[in-house]
Amino acid sequence: MTLAIKKLLTLVALLMGTPALGTAGADLFRDGVESYEAGRYESAAHSFQASLDKHVFAGTLLNLGLAEWQQGHTGEAIAAWEQSAWLNPFDPGARINLSQARERAGLDPLELTRCERTSTWLPPGLWAGMATLSLWLAVAMVTLPEFFRRRKAGWHQTLSALALGLFLLSLAPNIGVLTRANTGILTEKNTSLRRTPTPSAEVVATLAAGESCRRLRERGDYWLVHTRRGNGWIERQQAQLLRLE
Questions:
Q1: SS3 helix, strand, coil % of the chain, rounded to 5?
Q2: Residue 174 scores a pLDDT above 90
């Protein structure tokens, strides 16, 4: 990334991601900003992570990714930017960083299902809220007129139909949110993709930090994952899931 792009993306991240004054993580976030601007990237990453432990903000994740990238931590940076883009798909900063980072590292994103692609259009909380509110609205338009002993008007039926349609439309992206919670990023360099979940198992492929994966199941300290290089087992500490707690 050029210096001008780095400065621009950092400014966007600070404007978009500053926690509201008075929140528990605000001081930690400011400490991270000061450390980043002073070139103390490891300290900045620690402060941003501590701020995220208090409250998750898309902008904090964006800045965490910048601090990790400056330290050469490709996997951690890509994971943070993926989470930032998931929380706030309207902010282009994370998507630009992801595109440039993957281009430099020679990585491709994991192929998403149709439901998962749809789920990227809005933040996950909005999809969940849309499903909940539309369902309750549809139920209310059907039951409340009878409860209050009122004649059911035409607009009740129309609004109920619209709400039910909105609920059905929100089902696919909500399913996508759930399945995307099992996608992740490899954070360890030269991760061995093994045929069985044992340290002595045959190595199927060697994966780079920052490569995407999908967790299929787990056994002990190992995950069976799907990657663009095939399926295999990795140690669970070698990857970070993108699920947003």
A1: 60, 15, 25
A2: yes
